[in-house]
Amino acid sequence: MKIYFSGAIRGGRQDAQLYQEIIAHLKNYGEVLTEHIGQMDLQEDNLSDVQIHDQDMAWLTASDVIIADVTVPSLGVGYEIGRGLEMKKPIYCFYRGEKTSAMISGCQDFKTFKYETLEEVKGLIDGVFESMG
Amino acid sequence: MKIYFSGAIRGGRQDAQLYQEIIAHLKNYGEVLTEHIGQMDLQEDNLSDVQIHDQDMAWLTASDVIIADVTVPSLGVGYEIGRGLEMKKPIYCFYRGEKTSAMISGCQDFKTFKYETLEEVKGLIDGVFESMG
Fold first, then answer.
1. Rounded to two decimals, what is the model's pTM?
2. Domains and CATH numbers, chain B
3. For chain B, which terminal residue's Cβ has fewer other Cβ atoms within 10 angstroms, N or C?
4. What is the DSSP track for chain A?
5. Which residues on B lie below 8 Å from A60 (Cβ)?
6. pLDDT, average across residues B50-54
7. A100: distance to nearest CA of chain B, Å?
């Protein structure tokens, strides 16, 4: 199982530690293609924007499932969900707080879950992968 | 010409006044389907998230061109660009500041322009519509 994890990068790195924990948990279910998103000291200086975009799109295309944290507003996360949806990828979104974008929570082509704690999101992820059999 | 203007809503309303000015300028070139995005007092309480999503997707599908302000991180704007791209819509993105998401500036399927002032973005928009001629 190839898993594409999507989380905010330039828009906000405040959740990088949490992403790292989510990614560590996702590894119980397969290979996480975007493991770098959990790196606290993510360096992208040696890659051009085109290289970053094209690499992420190659991973998105190769993935079997997309797991997105949609807590922090992010152009990149929204873009990846939009493109993944048109590619017919299974998508599961997770967010903390009162609400996320209506474009995410209002889309009936994938499921969006609310969570509060790391333990809670890990449990929700377990449910998702168990339901995928 | 049907124009879909995309700007941040739940992620940030600080640019609503600017969006209003951009939308007013876009009206020189056609009908702006998403004129409400420039409303300072945008009320979405009487619509469900599903209604908001489905209405915006209907407008996106009906549009001839997508004009997006990608200054403020936004899941909705990223999602609309991702879906619009897969629908083969012409897309033009504009941002202020140092940089925008690599998923936007690194995508070679549409053009992204940097601007500083309202006058500058109006001039860039003029150039876009003149080139579409």
1. 0.95
2. 2-132 (3.40.50.450)
3. C
4. -EEEEE--STT--TTHHHHHHHHHHHTTTSEETTGGGG-TT---TTS-HHHHHHHHHHHHHH-SEEEEE-SS--HHHHHHHHHHHHTT--EEEEE-SS---HHHHT-TTSEEEE-SSHHHHHHHHHHHHHHH-
5. none
6. 96
7. 8
